[in-house]
Amino acid sequence: MDQWKKIHVLGAGSQGKVYYDVKIDPSLLCASVAAVKCADNNRSSSLQKEAKILTTLKDISIDNDNIPIYNLFLEYASGGSLHDLINNSKRRMIKMSELEVGFYTYQLLKGIQHVHKKGWVHCDIKPANILVFNNEHGGIHKLKLADFGLSLKVDDRKAYMSGIPLSNRGTMLYAPPESLIYGRCAVAEMMTGDRIWIHCDTEDLQENIMNDEVNPEIPSNVSEVARDFFCKCLIKDPVTRWMSDQLLEHPFIQQA
Description:
By secondary structure, the protein is an alpha+beta fold.
């Protein structure tokens, strides 16, 4: 049976770890690589839920301590995450152009649209959960959504939107305003390298958002079309906020 070998840890979270795995094929003198998310089998409910959503290879194995481990094999993203891409651009002091941000946003919107059509809401979209695949010929990268362990079925989103406390409603700084936590726009972060809510105290922000006492800081050094796009994304009322199909038709996306 083919054997995968864990080389090093790519990342870790509350549910387990992600490893860089390699499998050698002696007959072809080549190696296959993958990112493998692992968790103790008795604590793998979130990972198993993610496996049901993704069309990926999954397997049960036994580690060196004879502890059952649940493995979820995923495509390895050699470019890391969008969080890494943003930080690298910031360190090099080379901001992404609006056309580049627009094209990345187009990819994200298409991914979100596809997930919604399949009956799921991701619930934890943030730069760290957006994988970057290097373009072999340089230029624009390919992005893919990742980490579906907190996803909800569309019908379950009613509770998420109502502000009812949920244990799995995602990372606070990225959740939409109606979930009573801190909404932040990854598009603005790509363009500026900074978070929208950077000047707000996290203890008071939740109440201030819902009482309309604080608004996100839209970047000042962007074009009018980009500013309008941000405003459409950050409308607090989920009924009037633009959906992914509307945003895909916005001039900010169309020009990219």
